[in-house]
Amino acid sequence: MLFRFVSSVLLLALAAAAAQAADAPLLGSLRYDSDYPSIAYSSAATHNVFARLQQRIDSGEVKLDYHPTRGYLDALLKELNIDVSSQVLVYSKTSLQIDGIVAATPRAVYYNDQAYVGFVQGMPLLELAAVDSELGLVFYSIVNRPPVAPRFDREAGRCLTCHDTYSMLGGGVPRLMVLSAAVDGEHNPSGRETSDETSDHSALRDRWGGWYVTGQVGKQLHLGNLPVSGDPLLAGRSDAQRLNLKTLDGLFNTKPYISNQSDVVALMVLEHQTAAQNFMTRANFKLRTLLPRFEGGVLPTKLEGLSVKSQTTVKALLEPLTRHLLFADAIEFTSPISGHAGFEKALEARGPRDAQGRSLRQLSLQTTLFRWPVSYFILTEYFDSLPQLGREYVYARVLAVLRGQDTSAGFDRWSAADRKAGLEILIATKPEFARYVAEGRLSTTMPAITSTVPTN
C-alpha cells in the first residue's frame, strides 16, 4: 500500500521533530546523496505541488479551511485538484500511522497525476507524496489538528525505510507501492504471510488483499473485502456478499469519509500510474548517474554515438518503462469492469483531447483498462523530466510499435486501427513527440543494442 511504514502511533512532537519544512533541505545526508549525487535528493524540493501550495499559503493567497471530522483533507484535495472519486480505502496495517488502521477505520488514499494524500481517522497527520520534477518522489506530512497552521513538512528516513525497496544495500530509489496483503482463510491457499506488490500486470485474483473494493467485476475473483491479520470484521462473507458491491455501507461506518466507496477503477489506474512512476524514477536516477561515468563525465543528449555500455544501460532502464506505457504486459479482463464513484468521468475530463475528442485518458474496461494503446503517463510533467535521450528512446520505441514496425510479444495485441488512432492522439496532444516525428528524428535514433543486462 502507499505510505508503507511499520511503526507505533506517532505523537505530534515527534512529527514536528522528524520532518523539515517543505522548501528546506533535508537534515543530514541520505544514501541517495552518495549513490546519485547528480540528483541531490536531500536538497530543497521546490518543483512539486506541495512546495508550490506552501508558497501560496505563506503569501496569504490560499487559506485551507478546517473540517471538524477530516481536518484539512477536504480543502487540500480541492487546492490540489484531486477528485474525491479517486478515494480508495485500505485496512491492512501499512502506513506511517498503523495504530489507527483496522477494517472499521480504514485509511483513505486520494490521488492525481502529481500527488497522493493519505488520511487516517483520528490520527494527527495527513500523509503526503508528490512527484518532484527534479528529485523524483518526495514525501511530506501535515499536522491535521487545529490550531496548528497548515505546513507541509518534508519526510525522509521514516518513509524511505519502506519506500525504497529496489535495493536495501544501495542503488534503490524512492518509490510508491500498491500492496496486496495476505488474507485469512480459504482465499489464501498459498499460506503467504507477506504482502505482494501489484500492478496492471498482476492477475485480478492476486490483487487488493487488505483493500475495500466497490464496483462491478462480474465473476472475476479478487482478494478485496476479505479479513487480514485476524481482524474479524469481514470474516464469514461469501464471494457473493463481498464482490460487485455498490457501496461500503453496512460493512463499517462510512460517514467520516468523503465517499462510501473504494472504487475498483480508481484502484486499477492507481496501480498503473504508480508502476509507471517507479519505472520512471529508477530510469531517471540511473541514467543521470551512470551515463556520465561511461561518457567522459557528460550526460549525452543524443542516442547516436553512445558506447556499447551506455547503449546497454539505456535499453535495460528504458525498455521496461516503454513496455509499461504500451501496456505490453498488462492483463486482459474476462468480463467488463465498471465503477460507481464517477472516477472514469473525472479521469477522462482531464484530457487533453485531439480534434476528434479522443484522449489517452479514455478508459475501455471491457477487456483492457484503457481504450488506446499508449498510456496518458507519457503526457505528464514527470515524464518530461527524463533526460532528452531518454525521452527520445521512449518516443522512438512507441513510434515503432504504433506504426506496426515492432509486433513482438506484447506489442501485437492491438489492432492496426487502434495503433493508428493512438499515434494520432499522441501526435495531437504531445507537442515534443509531434515535433520529433515531423522532423524525422525518431527514425534514425534507435541504437543497435543487443544486450539487455540489468543495470544495478
Question: Can you walk me through this structure?
Answer:
It is built from 13 helices and nine strands. The radius of gyration is 22 Å and the shape is globular. It is an alpha+beta fold. The chain has helices at residues 12-18, 31-35, 49-58, 73-80, 157-163, 239-242, 264-294, 308-325, 343-349, 381-384, 388-402, 416-429, 431-438; strands spanning 20-21, 88-90, 107-111, 115-119, 125-132, 136-143, 153-155, 179-180, 196-197. The two termini are 25 Å apart. Strands 1-7-6-5-4-3-2 form a seven-stranded antiparallel beta sheet, sandwiched between helices. A two-stranded antiparallel ribbon has the order 8-9. A hairpin with a 3-residue loop joins strand 3 and strand 4. Among the domains are: 12-167, no CATH class; 296-438, no CATH class.
Mean pLDDT equals 88
Q: List the secondary-structure elements in sequence, H or E.
A: HEHHHEEEEEEHEEHHHHHHHH
Specify the overall morphology.
globular
- What are the low-pLDDT stretches, counting only 5+ consecutive residues below 50? 1-19, 450-456
For the sheet with most strands, the description reads: 7 strands, antiparallel
Number of helical stretches of at least 4 residues: 13
Could you say which structural class the secondary elements and strand pairing correspond to?
A: alpha+beta
Strand order of the largest sheet: 1-7-6-5-4-3-2
Q: Which band does the percent of strand residues land in? A: 5-15%
Question: What are its keywords?
Answer:
456 residues; two-stranded antiparallel ribbon; alpha+beta
Task: Give me the secondary-structure topology.
Blueprint: H1 12-18, E1 20-21, H2 31-35, H3 49-58, H4 73-80, E2 88-90, E3 107-111, E4 115-119, E5 125-132, E6 136-143, E7 153-155, H5 157-163, E8 179-180, E9 196-197, H6 239-242, H7 264-294, H8 308-325, H9 343-349, H10 381-384, H11 388-402, H12 416-429, H13 431-438
Antiparallel strand pairs: 1-7, 2-3, 3-4, 4-5, 5-6, 6-7, 8-9
Helix pairs in contact: 7-8, 8-11, 12-13
